[in-house]
Every structure is written in structure tokens, then in C-alpha cells.
Design brief:
Strand order of the largest sheet: 3-2-1-4-5-6-7
InterPro entries: NAD(P)-bd_dom_sf, Sc_DH/Rdtase_CS, SDR_fam
Helix content: 40-55%
CATH architecture: 3-Layer(aba) Sandwich
CATH superfamily: NAD(P)-binding Rossmann-like Domain
Shape: globular
Structural class: alpha/beta
Protein name: Short-chain dehydrogenase
Family: Belongs to the short-chain dehydrogenases/reductases (SDR) family.
Keywords: Oxidoreductase
Pfam family, one: adh_short
Length: 246
Amino acid sequence: MKRVLIIGATSAIATACARLWAEQGSTFFLVARDQEKLEQTAADLRAHGAKAVALHSMDATDVTAHPAMLSSCMNELQQIDIALIAHGTLPDQKACEQDVNVALREFAVNGTSVVALLTLLANQFEAQRCGSLAVISSVAGDRGRPSNYLYGTAKAAVSTFCEGLRARLFKVGVNVTTIKPGFVDTPMTQGLNLPPLLLATPDKVAHRIVDGIERKASTLYAPGFWALIMLIIRCIPQAIFKRLSL
């Protein structure tokens, strides 16, 4: 039985992961903004075999609310075996270019709030000296593309933060997994013109994530072929890359 904390628990990928852990009889502490969706998710997980599910409503960008959330989580679970940070948005790049307030708000959702949560959770895991901390970043953070560089910048910050945190927590027996999904068929990507051959289902991504956390993977591309795609993209010379419309 695992004790699992999920922040952004109502997202499609997080829910798919939770179902897999529920089938193992895990206990959950679920965090998201929408209480009604949280309750629906909890009912779904109980139907899939979850031993117990506790809920906590919180806006992840409200950094002042993080300590109370973690305190409630520890009261419920006593110890965290797996923490998955899965909240985020897919910003409108043009809107971010036109309005600095929009840009900063989206960066707070996808970057700053994640770093704040990681900082808080890292101290808890360091005290435990065990467990796995997993964060959904994105392939978008591997290189800045004109179509979504605000989002990519936030994810790059998260990925770099995780790299340093991984080295710190490894020394006390805690693993940090950076998850980099590619195109996933979720409500967040609905309406985007994405290549069908590269579009994965949340279930497929979830199986890779759950398996990767179990294996204590450091960086996890999901699906795995994105590792090769992003290697190629990173190797494109800047003189050529800046002329591309990616």
C-alpha cells in the first residue's frame, strides 16, 4: 500500500496515474482547486480500489496556503511515499506577449508555484529520508520555441530546479523524477492542431509515469520516443533554429 499526495489531482494525467495506484490499494491525499471535481475523482478512485481518499481544496498559486495543505496531508497520511505535482495550464503565447500581467500569471502557475511546492515538499522528504517526488514538466522546456516560449521557460525552470533537487535528495534516499510529456490528448490540448501520430492518451502516459516512479527514474519522457525527438531538436544549430516556425 502506498501513501500518495497528488497536487493538481483532477488533471487528466494525474487522474490516470491515481487509478493505477488505486488498483494497488493506495491511500490518497488529493489537492486541486475545484472541490466538486475533487469529489468526483475521489469516488472514481474508491471504485478502483483506493483504501482511503482525503481531499483538500487549494489554489496552487497561493503560496501562503502550501504549509497548511502539507500539514493536513501529514495528519492524514503520516508519511508520503509518492508525491506527484501535476497542476498547470497551457498559456496563450500571443496573450503573454501582449500583456505582462498575463505572462507573469501563467509563469506563476507553471513555474513559481511548482518551485514553491517542491521547496516545501523537499524538506518533508528530507526529514523522512525515503519516498519519491515526481513533477510533471514538459518537453517544451527542452528548447525555447516561438509558439510557446513562456510555457517552455516555466517548464525549463522546473526541470532545472528538479535536477539540482535530485542531487540533493539522492543523498538521503529520496528520488526526484522529472516527467516530460509530449502531446497528450487532454482537455488542456483540446482544439490544438496536433499530429495524430504523436498524440498519446493519458492512460498510456500514466502507465509510463507510474512505472518510471517505481524504477526511480530521473528524467522520464512520455511516451519514450520524445527523448529522441527532443535530442534532435536540441541539436539544431541556433542559426537554423531561429528561422523555423516551431
